[in-house]
């Protein structure tokens, strides 16, 4: 039976195939390469899977930013923290707040308190903005109870929002952009995500 792990004829090293070059595949390949011959298989034309390092313009030089690790912290990712420490990968603390800029900057706000919410003074005069705020308060009040509703298992976020009378401003200007940022996807794909995700 071929399990994918065989002994090489010379030196008795195991030959191991690793499928996928995301963070798990790359970590496994790196660790296993110390004692085995490893072949890494990847269908994409780059390594990294979900993660993707891009150069963001900085004040003095470009800064490499890994777009796959949108949320990274010591508490939730202890093994990744240990790997970064072992590889001497520097990390910096970041602000985990949320901000949205839509329509080329025509509508902007942030979730960092009242000053951020009203950072664009014209929002005060927009009924769409106030309907969004109203539904933000409603949704975050109702959300914990939604997790316990068995009849909503398997229901998509988009289907739930369509049936629950939420304003387009809440859906399009807040919930979908925030979900897309957290899940590293597009706002339109967020509608397909399970409500309970």
TrEMBL record:
PROSITE patterns for this protein: PROKAR_LIPOPROTEIN
Classification via InterPro entries: FAD/NAD-bd_sf, Zeta_carotene_desat/Oxidored
Signal sequence, start to end: none
GO MF annotations in UniProt: oxidoreductase activity
The protein, known as: Amine oxidase domain-containing protein
Organism: Tilletia caries
């Amino acid at each position: 039976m071929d399990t994918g792990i065989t002994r090489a004829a010379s030196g008795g090293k195991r030959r191991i195939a690793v499928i996928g070059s995301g963070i798990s595949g790359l970590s496994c390949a790196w660790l296993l390469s110390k004692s085995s011959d490893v072949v890494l298989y990847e269908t994409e034309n780059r390594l990294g899977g979900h993660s993707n390092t891009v150069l963001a313009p900085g004040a003095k030089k470009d800064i490499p930013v890994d777009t796959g690790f949108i949320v990274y912290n010591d508490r939730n990712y202890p093994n990744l923290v240990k790997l970064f420490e072992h590889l001497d990968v520097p990390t910096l603390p970041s602000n985990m707040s949320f901000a949205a800029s839509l329509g080329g900057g025509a509508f902007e706000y942030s979730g960092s308190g009242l000053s951020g919410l009203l950072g664009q003074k014209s929002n005060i005069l927009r009924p769409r903005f106030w309907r969004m705020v109203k539904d933000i308060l409603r949704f975050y009040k109702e959300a914990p109870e939604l997790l316990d509703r068995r009849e909503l298992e398997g229901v998509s976020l988009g289907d739930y929002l369509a049936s629950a009378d939420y304003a387009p401003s809440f859906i399009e200007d807040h919930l979908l952009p925030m979900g897309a940022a957290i899940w590293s996807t597009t706002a339109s794909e967020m509608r397909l995500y399970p409500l309970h995700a």
